[in-house]
Amino acid sequence: AYEIVSRDWSSDVCSSDLTRSTLAGTFSGFVCGFSGIMVGYITNFNQIHAFAWVPLVLYGLQLIREGRHRPGAAVAALAIALMWLAGHPQVPVYATYLGAGVLSGGLLLDRPARPVAVARLWWAGAALALGLMLAAIALIPMVELSGFTARADASWELYASSALPTRELLGLLVPFIFGGFWTPSGTVPYVGSTGDSGYAGLLAIALALAAPLLLPGHRREAGLWLTLMVVEVLLCLGPATPIGALFYYAPGYAGFQAPLRHLFLVTLCLSVSSGLAIAGLAERRERRGALAAAVLAVTLLGAVGVAVLVWQT
Fold this sequence. Notes:
Shape: globular
Order of helices and strands: HHHHHHHHHHHHHH
Low-confidence stretches: 5-13
Radius of gyration: 20 Å
Mean pLDDT: 84
Largest sheet: none
Helix content: 55-70%
Strand content: under 5%
Structural class: mainly alpha
């Protein structure tokens, strides 16, 4: 929501020019905030506390991208510090790589002059460094104490544990296909063998897929977020995919289990892309046919997936 919504403040110095749509930002906020992974992780609230600041980090990077370097760096640095201070370090590590993907994707899309590109990288790096320094009061003891934990030595078995089974990708379209209709009193419903769900709604998925068709001016922007979403989905599967196996060697990754927690970032990318589509629909209502086709395609994809699952089991 931070990435998409823009309000007419007394000064434009901290408002984003991406869509300037309050409706789109509100929709994105609901998609991300009420997704299956957010509701399902109520009992692991330290993950939610850290993830809550990730959109603000991306908002700061967006301001830097638009040439508002100092306010963007200040916002991103503050958000990075709060993200690291909020709870579990796994989400901040994942979010750092997502931020690098957003920054690199923006450079590829915009193809700015070399001085502009260098300025973006410099200010983004400064924001990261400042954010880490602000959070050093917790980070330094965290790093020191981590050497005395059971996960001090990274291992392939640890990294691969609690990856999302490939078949449970169907849960992104059909949330209760693996169970969860009946929940004992006083507990939170979980689905699948892992107990986690990335379901965020069929409409959000359809909007995200239709975004490149609904946004003549932001088609490549929507494509960037869809690409990042696909990468995050593959990382959820852990070593089951080549990219998941490769990320075992990425700095900071091998010390964490449960790569399925990339579902947090899947939801975030989905919410941004679907929000872009909402903004496009608000401006060009005659393109609603593309959304209807996307809804039909997503529904048929879910139906085929269910049919294949039933046939195999």
